[in-house]
Amino acid sequence: MSVAPIQAGRSADLRLSARLYERLSRLVAGGKRAAALAYLEKAIGEVLPLFAADPVIFGARRTAWLVRTQLLLEWGRPAEALAWTCLECQLAPSPDAAGEASALRDRLLRQLRLEFPTEPGPTVAAESQWPGMAGMFDLRAVLERDLITPLRYPEDARRYRVLPPNGILLYGRPGCGKTFIARKIAERLGWSFTEFKPGDLGSIYIHGAQEKIAKAFEEAEQQAPVVLFFDEIDALGARRDAASHDGYAEEVNTLLAQLDGCAAKGILVVGATNFPGKLDPALVRAGRLEQRYFVGPPDFAARFALFRHHLAGRPAGGIDLGRMAARSEGYTAADITYLCEQAARLALSESKRAGREVLIAPAHIDAAMRAHPPTAVLDSHTAIGFRP
Ligand SMILES: Nc1ncnc2c1ncn2[C@@H]1O[C@H](COP(=O)(O)OP(=O)(O)OP(=O)(O)O)[C@@H](O)[C@H]1O
Ligand SMILES: [Mg+2]
Predict the structure, then answer these.
(1) Of ligand 1's atoms, which has the minimum distance to the CA of residue 177?
(2) Is the CB of 177 under 6 A from ligand 1?
(3) In angstroms, what is the span from residue 282 Cα to ligand 2's centroid?
(4) Which of 13, 15, 29, 381 is the residue whose CA sits 20 to 30 A from 197?
(5) Beta strands of the chain (E only): which ranges?
(6) Ligand 1 atom with the shortest distance to the CA of 133
(7) What is the pLDDT of residues 150-188, one digit of tens each?
(8) 130-294: what fold?
(9) What is this structure's pTM?
C-alpha cells in the first residue's frame, strides 16, 4: 500500500515536503504502522505546532491530518480518525476546510453508529452533563442513548417499548476508567451509588455469601433509585463450571436471581471486570448485565482532555496539550493521572532546589513518560467506547 498525496492546497506543500511523503510511504509499504504514525506525530509536533495561527502552518497541519486520517481509516481505526476529525472541525481555518472536515466527521459518526441528533434533545451528551469526565465522547454518546435516556424518560421509553436495562457490564484493562464511569452514571442519573469490591470487610464476595448477596439487594431496594456497582464482578459471578469452592454455584445462582427484575425496583446493576471471558454466560445474557461496554485506553480526544484536566490549577507553562495527547498513545487514564502528578513532583522539587517557582513544563512530562512506559498494549480495539 502506498500513501497517495492528498490535495490540500499549495501552502501546505511548502512544509509537508516530498521527503516526508517518501519516508512515510516507505514505512507504510514496509508494514511499519506504529513507526509511520510516530513519524507523522513527530512531524506534526516539531514542524507544525498544532495551534499556531500562521495560515501556512494551518495548511501544512491540515495535510498531515488528512494523511493520518487516511492511514487510520485504512488500518481499521475509525474512532481515532474520528477524534482527529473532530479536532480538525474546531481548528479548520476556512469555511471550506471546516465543511470538508465536518462531512468526514458525519460519515465516521454514521460508520460508528454514533449519529448525533441535529436538534438539542434528551440524547445530547453535553460536556456539562458529565462534569469532571475527560473526553470519552463516543462512550458518553452511547451511554446516553442506551442507558441514560430510557432511565430518565421512562414514559417516553415505554411508548417506544424500550425497556430500561437491569444491568450493564463495563470491561477492559485496568486503569481505563470503569469504576470512574460507574460513579459518573449514578451522578448523571442523580441516583445513589453503592459499591461492592472483593477487598471490603465482610465482603459479599467471600464464600458463604448467598445471604449477604440477597441482603445487599434488599438494602438497595430501600435506597432506590440506586446504581449498585460490583467491582471485579468476575470474583462473584465466574463460570459455575469453574467453581472455586463448594456452594459457589449457589452463590452465582443467587446473584442471577437477584438480577432479574432489578429495573422495575429502580436498581441499576453495573458490573466491572478485566476478564469478561471468566464470567458465567447466564450473567451477561439479556435481562441481566445485558449491555456490555468496552472501556479501552483513552483515545486522542480523551488524552487531550485528561492532560488539560490534570494540569488545570497547577502551575504549568509551555505545554502543548495536542502534542502531549499525540505522544501518549497507549497510556491509560490512570497512567496520565500519574504522569501529571509525577511531572508536578519533579517541578516542585526543582523549585525547592532553585529557591523560586518552576513551572511544570513539557520536559517534566517527558521525563515522567520515559520512566513510566504505557501500560496498555495497543490493538485495533483500543479506542474508548467500542462494544464487543
Ligand atoms: N474520563 C476520565 N476523566 C477523568 N479521570 C478519569 C477518566 N477516566 C479515568 N479517570 C481516572 O483514572 C483513574 C483510573 O480509573 P479507574 O479506577 O476507574 O479505572 P478502572 O478501569 O476501574 O481500573 P481497575 O480495572 O484497575 O479497577 C481514576 O483516578 C479516575 O478518576
Ligand atoms: Mg476499578
Answers:
(1) 18
(2) yes
(3) 23
(4) 381
(5) 167-171, 192-196, 226-230, 267-273, 289-294
(6) 3
(7) 998 989 999 999 888 899 999 988 888 999 999 999 999
(8) Rossmann fold (3.40.50)
(9) 0.65
